[in-house]
Design goal:
By secondary structure, this protein is mainly beta. It contains 2 helices and 8 strands. Helices cover about 15% and strands about 40% of the residues. The longest helix is centred in the N-terminal third of the chain and has 11 residues, at about 5-15. Residues about 5-25 have low confidence and may be disordered.
């Protein structure tokens, strides 16, 4: 696991963000999209309360699973989704059994099934898309 300060986490996010082709349509979260995504599974520590700046300075660590996509996507169908925002990271959430499975697949290429997709709306959300993982498997 890595501990990231706000500046480093922001730099990582910007480095991972990409540009989608202009002709690609956005996933519509009001229709339960995206239902399946693939990419590299990362496990990062982001700074949480009280300042959301630096774990070493006393902010609470927020261990987070991030899916790094190979190609940028966009989302719509949610008040916190901006279809103009192209991104390549997804904040993954899961029940204990899913977290156990995810732990074994860190830094590997995976396929995830998703539900309850939403646009990031708080400082606790560490990618533009936040979604619950219902299944995960190694990508071949």
């Amino acid at each position: 696991m890595q501990s990231l300060g706000f500046g480093i986490a922001t730099a990582l996010f910007l480095a991972l963000a990409g540009t989608a082709k202009a002709d690609e349509s956005c996933y519509d979260m009001s229709k339960g999209e995206p239902g399946v995504l693939s990419g590299k599974l990362l496990h990062l520590i982001f700074p949480g309360p009280p300042n959301f700046e630096n774990v070493q300075s006393g902010d609470k660590p927020e261990p987070t699973y991030i899916l790094q996509l190979q190609s940028a996507i966009c989302i719509s169908g949610d008040e916190f989704a901006d279809p103009k925002n192209k991104f390549s990271t997804v904040h993954l959430i899961g029940e204990k059994a899913i977290w156990t499975a995810m732990k074994k697949l860190i830094n590997r290429s995976v396929v995830v099934n998703l539900k309850d997709q939403m646009g990031a709306e708080t400082g606790h959300h560490h990618a533009p898309l936040v979604a619950w993982v219902t299944a995960i498997k190694l990508r071949h």
